[in-house]
Amino acid sequence: MKWHFFSPRLRCRYRHVFALLLIFPTLAFAFPESNPVPGGIVLLALNKNQIVQSARYKNKKLAIIYKNDTPYVLLGLSLGSKLGQHTLTLTNTEGREEKIAFNVGAKTYKSQHLRIKNKRKVNPYKKDMKRILSEKKRKSKAKKHWRKGAVQADFIVPLEGRISSIFGLRRFFNEQPRRPHSGLDIAAPQGTPIKAMEAGTVIEAGNFFFSGNMVYLDHGQGIISLYAHMHTIKVQTGDKILKGQVLGTVGETGRVTGPHLHLAVIANQTLVDPLLFLPQLSLKAEEYFKNN
Length: 292
Ligand SMILES: [Zn+2]
Hints:
One of its GO terms (molecular function) is metalloendopeptidase activity. It comes from hydrothermal vent metagenome. The strands form four sheets. Strands 10, 13, 14, 15, 16, 17, 18, 19, 20 and 21 form a ten-stranded antiparallel β-sheet that branches. The chain has a four-stranded antiparallel β-sheet with strand order 1-2-6-5, with no helix packed on it. The relative contact order is 0.17. The chain has two domains: 4-104, Peptidoglycan hydrolase domains (Immunoglobulin-like), CATH 2.60.40.1590; 111-291, Glucose Permease (Domain IIA) (Distorted Sandwich). It contains three helices and 21 strands. A hairpin with a 4-residue loop joins strand 7 and strand 8 (97-104). The protein has helices spanning 8-13, 126-143, 282-291, and strands at residues 20-21, 41-45, 52-57, 60-61, 63-67, 70-76, 84-92, 97-104, 111-114, 162-165, 170-173, 176-177, 184-187, 193-195, 200-208, 212-218, 224-233, 240-241, 246-250, 260-267, 270-272. By secondary structure, it is mainly beta. It binds zinc ion. Zinc ion binds at residues 165, 181, 183, 185, 262.
């Protein structure tokens, strides 16, 4: 496909469909919040008359979600995103492309030091590596899952509990540096039911070396939620799940310091801050920031 966007003629043709970046205040209902920082998300409001066939960023397809009939492109930014100007590409039904620029701002993530009693979960044995590698493949396959059709992204909070850790913290296990925290931790007693944040389909479920018992739920167009360290799993791969349906219970399986739910959200194959999908937790998040 030819690259048309920068020709003045097309610029003119697209003048009426230029999209606008909107920053949302915290609202009572759970429409995701735009926060264009590493680990955050960008929500780009499209003109209602703008018929977009697909949206892409770094060659990955993006979800288009709706609020009050207005379509929004939802783009996840990895923790490693560079600051400054980025571009996404919209393609209309005739195959014409339009580039939209947006800016990624800075965000500082704190460090967290954790002591893990089971040293094998920090420094796995040689024989564990085969399992870890095969699980990595399953995880990456689940992350890349794409289902066409409407997206469900009006998330509910999956359980009552205290926020015990937030997304993006630079982590040290037994003083050894590891990958940053890829989700939101909610501490609750073992056995507490965990509800599906939205309707979806189970695309992966099982026991993983680091994540323990874990379920991946697909909500459409690359929006995926995952639930880790569960005590029990009550669903199977392929199950169609209703919003609020119990997926399993809180546990302390895998690499943990105690019973909690590790909740993660994926958009365009990228792990992003789950709090941006759960504005209902803003008070609990404030409480966390006060104490940490
Ligand atoms: Zn976690």
